[in-house]
Amino acid sequence: MPLTDTAARTAKPKEKLYRLSDSLGLCLEVTPTGAKLWRFRYRFAGKPKMISLGAYPAVTLAKARERRDAARSLVAEGIDPSSHKQAEKRTREAEAHTFEILANEWYAYNSPRWAESTAYKARLYLDNDIIPAIGRRLVAEITRPDLVDLVRKVEKRGTLNAAGKIRQWLNQIFRFGLAKGVATTNPATDLDVVAAHAPRARHHPHVPLAEIPELLEKLAAASSDAPTRLAIRLLLITGVRPGELRTAPWDEFDLDSATWTIPAARMKARRPHIVPLPAQAVVMLRELAEITGCYPLAFAGKQNPDRPMSENTINKALRLIGYEGRQTGHGFRHLLSTELNSRGYNRDWIERQLAHGDKDEIRDTYNHAHYLEQRRGMMQAWADEIDALCAGANVVAIRRA
Description:
- By secondary structure, the protein is α+β, with helices and mostly antiparallel strands.
- It has three domains: 5-84, Double Stranded RNA Binding Domain (2-Layer Sandwich), CATH 3.30.160.390; 99-194, Tyrosine recombinase, N-terminal domain (DNA polymerase, domain 1), CATH 1.10.150.130; 209-390, hpI Integrase, Chain A.
- It has helices at residues 5-10, 61-76, 81-96, 99-110, 116-134, 144-156, 160-180, 212-221, 226-238, 242-246, 279-292, 313-320, 331-342, 347-353, 361-366, 372-390; strands at residues 18-21, 26-30, 36-44, 47-56, 253-254, 259-262, 273-276.
- The strands form two sheets. Strands 1-2-3-4 form a four-stranded antiparallel sheet, covered by helices on one side. Strands 5-6-7 form a three-stranded antiparallel sheet.
- The protein starts with a helix and ends in an 11-residue tail after the last helix.
- 28% of the residues are buried.
């Protein structure tokens, strides 16, 4: 007998799940908790199957029969109602999914496995370049020309490295969307084919050692703030990478023992790095602590102390005092390497100070020596020589065998 609305309404839960049949495969499933669910049972490709048609009383008996008849029509056309229902659900999700939602889901999934510097940079470019351009667009509506326009705007600023990262991340975000089922295509593939050609690279230019006193004199007279000036001087006498310095929290520094320990997560080679601090560096850091010591980050950002100093700050300060194309923050590492090698210091000490990996991977794996005390003496001599040059002394570099 066909099911009646009265029978559906008055059906009471039992100890076990049971079903009230209607006709043509439709039934009402009554659970022990009292929930009432419409089910359609059918055969497809010779196999028995069942799909849900909604819950009673939100879906009435009449509406459930309409849905059953629609499902039966699909079966007659050779379409599995279950697969059709899942496809419709994915389509609805895709239609409601903006790029901003997808990008934030991608970031939340990946950022815990990234180095802190990578997570910071990805978030910065998402918030400043990617999301403002296409964040409100539906994922399904975004085309390859849209993404080319986005990347072109970044390239026009001259930041080709940033443009390359953005192309890479766009590709990853759409691949993530494909896996989640909210994207049907990846319009971010092959964006590198139309990428702007980078000018011939000048690898981290730096001035000769003899010009360092003049550079530091101009820096002292410039309008840059104290943390920026201190950052540049610290890069000069420690040889660390600008990113390692900018993002350093105070708790990595032990000023009493004149040692800075950078964890593996923040290092390019993904291994911890110990930096011996010359006496001059300790003085600079104590001076900096009077400015930013109340914040977790040593070089806290001026606008948002929870974020580090901008990656462009140091190079902008050098540009403003006349060293554009002649000196970069990273260039101080090249200067230090050149000068220390010319003085005959042990190559392993220098390479360890610069946190370079050994080209011989087996040797690198088993070489656990930090050469800390040797490097401490080497870097103190380097800092003293810089001071002597700035004081105008006639310095004769000490040659080390």
